Amino acid sequence: MKTDKIYHKNIKKLLNDNELDVHKFDGYSVKSIIEFLKKSHQEFTGKAIPKVEQNFLMLLKNYPNNNQLQTLFNLFIKFEIDLKHHISIEEKTLFPYTKTLYRASIANSLQALLLIHFGEYSVSDFANSHENNECYLGEIIHLLEHQTGFENNITFNILLSQITQLNEEIKMHAWIEDNVLIKKVKEIEQAVSHFVGVSKN
Ligand SMILES: [Fe+2]
Prior knowledge:
Largest sheet: none
Order of helices and strands: HHHHHH
Bound molecules: fe (ii) ion
């Protein structure tokens, strides 16, 4: 949808600002934030990760006896599995819960009250869940930077810049999820809980 594309571009622009400020996202609805997050999940799994993988494989082909490189590739594959698992949990639980809650709250419906009152979890369960993945990738980058003998290797340098960019994008993604989405949903949860006089905590 055209509007989604505009939102996506604008959100990306806000994320590239020097100072990240939660209030800059006040004008975006929960729905558009979720669309942005979903799109970036697709970009990670459909574009950025395959590109890194491809360059890793090319390097391994050229340096078949480099065990450190092989170990780093294995670590990257583990990171990829963890990230995909994390994405699937978000898309199966957090996003549908958030969407239903948001839709119900703007419609002022009984559904929102019931969802919070009888729901199995609250959005707080998801806060900071990206942290492990970030550490992982940071460690791989750190170890790659300390590899010797690749100074003038084009594939190696491309790989390093791709993986560094992926790391930055995942950090931004995590920031928007933890600080923008979760904050907005907590506000809805609290408002509804307050309304029925029930707090989940
Ligand atoms: Fe995510």
